[in-house]
Amino acid sequence: MMKKIGYGFMYILAAVWLVPLVWTVWTAFRPKRLALSSSFSFDFTLTHFTHVWNSAPFNTYYLNTLIIVAGVFAIQFLTVSLAAFAFARVEFWGKSVVFVLFLAQIMIPADILIFPNYNVLRDLSLLDTKLGIMIPYFASAFGVFLLRQMFKTIPFELDEAARMEGCSLWQVLWRIYIPLSGPAFVSFGLVSVSYHWNNFLWPLIITNSVENRPLTVGLAIFAQSFETGAQWSEVTAATMIVILPLLLGFMLFQRQFMNSFIHSGIK
Amino acid sequence: MVGTAARRRAWRRNAFAWLLLLPSLLFLVLFTLYPVAGSLKLSLYQADLGTPQPSYIGLDNYSRMAEDDVFWKVIKNNAWFALGTVPTSILLSLLMALFANKVMRAKGLVRTAFFYPTVVPMIAIGNIWLFIYTPEYGMISRFLEPFGLTGPNWLGTPDLVMWAMIVMILWKEAGYFMVFYLAGLQNISEELYESAKVDGVGAWRVFWRITFPLLMPTTLFVSIIALTNSFKLVDHLWIMTKGGPENASNLLLFYIYETAFSFWDQGMASALTTVMIIFLLLLAALQFFGLDRKIHYR
């Protein structure tokens, strides 16, 4: 009996958790004249979406976010693979010192260094550029630790066999380690992409032109341009435009997303 | 005796490793180490709109900070925010995991429902919840309307705004923490539960004697992430309250943002950043030297 009540409660909780999303979708697709009425009907419109898309440069924002997300991951893929290989398979002088340096990035994430990093970016003349949004994240200690774990599970015999065949360490990395670490790269990729798709404060600070703003900043500025309470239909439609790709990706690949975010804990 | 050939091999191995690390190290130094050092240094200088050339003032920024009511307000808010979100989100996520692990019907849907806020950006969550909390047009108000009730102005009342934020963050984070507990539950051997069943141990005792203690590492791990997040999550403030009313919802990181980019008081912004760094290092020390050891050598 207690168990049944408990289960019932948890199903209700799950339903409550969905309410904000359902409400957002509902408002975004509902004709404006009905938006504030409490009557129930299945009227449906796409006008809010076309209106939003035409009244703010969302196509530029979209392109910027795609470039940023892809650019960050491409560079991270390189830096992370190289560093993880050094930590996993090479004995070298100063290993523990460098390890602590990587840990420092996890302890003091770039998110809180917004002001000093703004100064670094200004000194590099990278303010208001897409490269400036990306560059603090090119090294990822989280990715290095995740890949290091993965590389360590690859049998050493494979490694040795390849070297008997005359492969250099460099070739061993590219022909054996990276191809065999697909799942770890997927996990890292999903976390990295989600993080940079959603990042807001840093791009807000360093951009001041439409050409470089990502979706999150565009959405915030769009939402702030309205009087309070007046334009819920447009704001919810704009919000949908921003969150839909990740949300759809998550719904389709639920298991991969959840497994990936388990690793993100060490971030 | 180490031969020259062996020494040369060792030298080449070291050079190879450092070359592999070089790209990462470049960015780590530039965007983690150097900024931390830079904050420490600039926090000892007066650097604002009135002083184009920074001038050394020792610890003046820090003593000014100690007398700044807003600073103490923000620290207090951060403490309340942590206290309101950390234990509750842990409890909630544990409940979610226990349920999502056992439930038969609509398992995928249940997990999706709890987890999806994780992939929604804070800025979008700010928009959605602003819509929920707004008086008159907002969802809560419209829900209360048929009952003849008018809800308070959640975000406009200093005593309520922090509670409103805490509820929103619980909604955002609980599902994320749930996946850690789900992973933790998978690691508990089924045999333990079976032998408890054979011995006729009740469900409540099984939870407190088996499940809860064995999930302890997960709980400590999740607490650290939740605590760190209570310092990091501020995007929603920009869209919902700007830290108001009367700084009632302001948090340390948002105050750094305001000090640096609205007031352009760079010396103070650096001093505040230094305080933030100290908090995070303390948290890390707690994790690495305190809690971790306890879990592993239990």
Automatic annotation (TrEMBL), chain A:
<feature type="transmembrane region" description="Helical">
    <location>
        <begin position="172"/>
        <end position="195"/>
    </location>
</feature>
<comment type="similarity">
    <text>Belongs to the binding-protein-dependent transport system permease family.</text>
</comment>
<dbReference type="Pfam" id="PF00528">
    <property type="entry name" value="BPD_transp_1"/>
</dbReference>
<feature type="domain" description="ABC transmembrane type-1">
    <location>
        <begin position="62"/>
        <end position="253"/>
    </location>
</feature>
<keyword id="KW-1133">Transmembrane helix</keyword>
<protein>
    <submittedName>
        <fullName>Carbohydrate ABC transporter permease</fullName>
    </submittedName>
</protein>
<keyword id="KW-1003">Cell membrane</keyword>
<feature type="transmembrane region" description="Helical">
    <location>
        <begin position="97"/>
        <end position="119"/>
    </location>
</feature>
<feature type="transmembrane region" description="Helical">
    <location>
        <begin position="131"/>
        <end position="151"/>
    </location>
</feature>
<dbReference type="InterPro" id="IPR000515">
    <property type="entry name" value="MetI-like"/>
</dbReference>
<keyword id="KW-0472">Membrane</keyword>
<keyword id="KW-0813">Transport</keyword>
<dbReference type="InterPro" id="IPR035906">
    <property type="entry name" value="MetI-like_sf"/>
</dbReference>
<feature type="transmembrane region" description="Helical">
    <location>
        <begin position="235"/>
        <end position="253"/>
    </location>
</feature>
<keyword id="KW-0812">Transmembrane</keyword>
<dbReference type="GO" id="GO:0055085">
    <property type="term" value="P:transmembrane transport"/>
</dbReference>
<dbReference type="GO" id="GO:0005886">
    <property type="term" value="C:plasma membrane"/>
</dbReference>
<feature type="transmembrane region" description="Helical">
    <location>
        <begin position="7"/>
        <end position="29"/>
    </location>
</feature>
<feature type="transmembrane region" description="Helical">
    <location>
        <begin position="61"/>
        <end position="85"/>
    </location>
</feature>
Automatic annotation (TrEMBL), chain B:
<feature type="domain" description="ABC transmembrane type-1">
    <location>
        <begin position="75"/>
        <end position="287"/>
    </location>
</feature>
<comment type="similarity">
    <text>Belongs to the binding-protein-dependent transport system permease family.</text>
</comment>
<dbReference type="Pfam" id="PF00528">
    <property type="entry name" value="BPD_transp_1"/>
</dbReference>
<keyword id="KW-0813">Transport</keyword>
<feature type="transmembrane region" description="Helical">
    <location>
        <begin position="268"/>
        <end position="291"/>
    </location>
</feature>
<keyword id="KW-1003">Cell membrane</keyword>
<dbReference type="InterPro" id="IPR051393">
    <property type="entry name" value="ABC_transporter_permease"/>
</dbReference>
<feature type="transmembrane region" description="Helical">
    <location>
        <begin position="113"/>
        <end position="132"/>
    </location>
</feature>
<dbReference type="InterPro" id="IPR035906">
    <property type="entry name" value="MetI-like_sf"/>
</dbReference>
<feature type="transmembrane region" description="Helical">
    <location>
        <begin position="79"/>
        <end position="101"/>
    </location>
</feature>
<protein>
    <submittedName>
        <fullName>Sugar ABC transporter permease</fullName>
    </submittedName>
</protein>
<keyword id="KW-1133">Transmembrane helix</keyword>
<dbReference type="InterPro" id="IPR000515">
    <property type="entry name" value="MetI-like"/>
</dbReference>
<feature type="transmembrane region" description="Helical">
    <location>
        <begin position="160"/>
        <end position="185"/>
    </location>
</feature>
<feature type="transmembrane region" description="Helical">
    <location>
        <begin position="206"/>
        <end position="227"/>
    </location>
</feature>
<dbReference type="GO" id="GO:0055085">
    <property type="term" value="P:transmembrane transport"/>
</dbReference>
<keyword id="KW-0812">Transmembrane</keyword>
<keyword id="KW-0472">Membrane</keyword>
<dbReference type="GO" id="GO:0005886">
    <property type="term" value="C:plasma membrane"/>
</dbReference>
